[in-house]
Amino acid sequence: MLSGSRYTSVSSTESLQGQGRRRAPPSRQHATRSEHPVSAAPSRTLAGDARSVATTEQAPPPEELEADLDNLDEVIMAVNLSDRGTVGCAYYVAREEKLYFMEDLKLGGADIVDQLKLFIDPTVVLVSSKCDDEIINRLDPELRNQRASIDGRSTDQTRLPYLLECRPGAEFGYDSARNKLVNLRIGQHGGPRVTFVVPGDIITDQGDYNNPDVGFAGRQGQLLRLSGWINIESRITVGCAGAVLSYLQRRKATAYLPLDQASSAVFRVATVEMFSLSGSMFINADTLLSLQITSTESHPNAQNQGPPGKGWSSGAKEGLSVYGLFHHLAKTTQGRALLRQYFLRPSLNIAVINERLQTISVLLRPDNTSCLDQLVESLSKIKNMHLLTINLRKGISSGLNRNRGVSSLVWPSIRNFVFHALRITDTLAELQGGDRLAIRLKIVDKFDRKELAAVGKLISDVVDFEASKDQRRTVVQAGVDDELDEAKRTYDGIEDLLSQVAGHVAEQVPAELESSVNVIFFPQIGFLISIRVDDATGRGVYEGTDENPWEKMFATEQNAYYKNSNMTEMDQYFGDIYGRICDKEIEIVQALGERVLEYEELLNLASDVCGELDSLVALARGARLHNLVKPRLTEENVIKIKGGRHPLQELTVSAYVANDTYIVGGAGDEEDGAHLDAITSQGAAGASLQPVQERHSAEGPSTVLMTGPNYSGKSVYLKQVAIIVYMAHIGSYVPAEAARIGLTDKILTRIATRESVSRVQSAFMIDLQQISIALSLATRRSLLVIDEFGKGTESYDGAGLATGVFEHLLRQGAESPKVLGATHFHEIFESGFLPARPGLGFAHMEVKVDKAASSVDDQITYLYNYRPERSSSSFGTSCAAMNGIDPEIITRSEELIMLAAKGENLVEICAELPAAELAELQDAENLARDFLETDIHDQPRKILDDLMTVASSSLDWTMPFEPKHKVELDPPKEDIISLDYLSKCDGSNPDYPTYVAIKGTVFEVTGNQAYGQGGSYKVFAGRDASRALAQSSLKAEECRPEWDDLSNEHKKVLDDWYTFFSKRYNIRGKVEGATNM
What we know:
By secondary structure, this protein is of the alpha/beta class. Helices cover 39% and strands 13% of the residues. It has 37 helices and 28 strands. Strands 1, 2, 3, 4, 5, 6, 7 and 8 form an 8-stranded mixed beta sheet that branches. Strands 20-21-22-18-23-24 form a 6-stranded mixed beta sheet, sandwiched between helices. α16 packs antiparallel against α21 (577-597). The chain is elongated and about 150 Å long. Mean pLDDT is 75; it is low at 1-60, 144-154, 188-217, 308-312, 398-408, 678-695 and 953-960.
């Protein structure tokens, strides 16, 4: 594995030695930044930068030294927010010469930017010009219309504690940022010089082998090394790092003359390091994927796939995942969003975690069942007020989607929200044991019942919901406006008026035309006469008289529509009454919207609190649905689980076997206690919510390595432990009988390999990067899950790397992280490479082996029970047999496995021939020797023909074991040979002959090294090996006399072996009591 050496950063005074022309940047007084309220990891130092910059020039003047000190106080932060809510951040600390990277945070927002600003305390803040206005408002609340000045900086810097710059979006580009990181020339001293070359890299013919930067000279090689220290796939954060590096370069360019060597000592990037938000567990994409925390399934129709549109989700849905167990139980959109945020950012604040657990505990009390059901019903009727108030501001009151009916109209949604919000307060008041719950106190404090009721009354007094449903628009109640009521009464009476006018007009139409006449009213057009069309002329059958002609307006296939003086008079008197009604109602509804928006802050706040309640209710319902229990969070660095289960795996099997876990991390030192208080963010409020826990160190292994058969459940067990720890930090109940979980700052995994054709890396390289990041970030409070690391390369290299990783973790002593591992490299234990010690524990998953079973499926029964101590076999061949691998392959594999376990040279063994072929080879050798010993004086053709005749006879398969030269054998004996004496004739004692018994007949094979000590067929010596010979097996357990139950094919092979031995070896007797003749 390629790893970087550690170097100590040079002191700031040394790094700033040198002289040059500089321009001092804006300064600000800062406290010493030796500590940051973030969870940081061991850093990596950049080669070449670790060497101090020494000069022989005179010391700079005092004013330049003061400028240098100002530079040391610089903290440059770049932050960006994508359209989909992913937050990225990188910052540089000049005093430490260190560049920090954050893992991209999904479902983030302006609140995350506020936290980052508070934690980092920057002197310079860089944001993208394409960034959301809300981010700019959070960073500079007084800046509304003008985002930046000509040079990108905010105009008045005195009102901000930092310099705010809006930079072009190109500076935050991922590709350019990645190139800038590669150009930092990350390298190492004393490590292996490996050149990783891909098409496109330029390789010189000659290299400076004294230069530590020669290794990994290619661009891809530099990316590989960089990927071992930071997550290069965090695209938003990498873009922010590029913006920081661009800013540093600009500062150098403006402060120093070109080619001034002193510029290389200012704003150096000496180390890179990952960090996470204080109070949140560090989780990367590998962990989320390996543990299946979230999983998105695309829509089966390709046309419905892709990113979500505005206001609506894409065709994707949540798949089988831990979050998916609770996702559908949340009834509101804001509740589902907050619940997903819980799962993406587990908390380290014990007070927050315990408050969530306590809320779930109260909701699950049997006497609160009806209250929980009422809460679910009320929450299902609540909409997201943020979207509704935005629509009100836009002047949209007809709903988000007209095709969704009246239920999605703004006014019914707000009225329903107010009603159910008030109902929720009443329900929580009836909740048993919930008087001191934080969520209840928050609802009591934030839900102003009087104002909420006022909002509901406002809407109910103005909007006629029944008429709105029929007309699919917002209709105003009667009694709100007298003028509107009069217009509506007039409009409602138009039907009778039209009937009277139609009768008057019909009297003017000649009776012989036999055409009915109607008078109708069209909004925006007015009153019209409708009469039948004459098919011959295409005009109406009657168009008035010469004194009072009718004016044609338009015609359809059956009727023509006209205006006359009567219609014009009615238009002037009544006007467009329907238009006046609609305009008046729009005016009233607009006024209603303005009045309701006066309560916008209350509605949005209440909506957010309902989302928080909905997420807690979803966790409670999920706990009841999936039989979860309340964990106990502790400051002890321990994981103790009784009867743990995998929440996803148990959904796919009929019965799940629960197992226990006990791991103890390093005890740390006294200073770690203060650091723990910092990362858990517990102030006075947190202390008041829970009793003070006395810290004491537990005893147990910090590293547990699992061995044992394939298919036995090792990987599932590793994942279930990590998932239980993960869920406990969410504040969720966990799948176990009981669980005591110590605070865990990171969960780092090497389980799944995320391969992609876009990454010029092999699967093993990706595994190495995962391990490298895990080793770099791990602290004593971290949980590392390492499943079969090293399997992607040659077995000896893989075993060595796995041993080195576990040995490194175990040697951390009091700073050892909690480690769960699984491996099939048994040789690292059998050879003593990883000796036993108190901090190392072994375990395996129990299996039941029945060697006598005739069916392959019955030979191994997986019990899935977690057992201490190590297993010596992986039963890989049995798993292969169960998956249909050819039996001959399985048999040969087992032979080689047994020989390898004994330390035999497999190369030499694989070069040995089977018995029949070996016999033919011996015959051929004898034939060749006879030929060489023959003196050919005459008749050479006859001698050659005789030799060829003998050679041809050797291919006669009717007698495959017939020797080429007759062997002089003694007369067969009928002596009775006891089993005890036979066992002593196994070739290990020179005082005894070497015997092999076949079908009860004893043959003497003394002198044949194949049956002696170290011989290929030693397993047959000293016993009746009929069954093994019949099956051509070298298994010791198959060397027994019974053969009657074998197939005819195997019996024929046994007969051939008997013939082979009877032609070559003397018969010394019969086995005492033999029944297999």
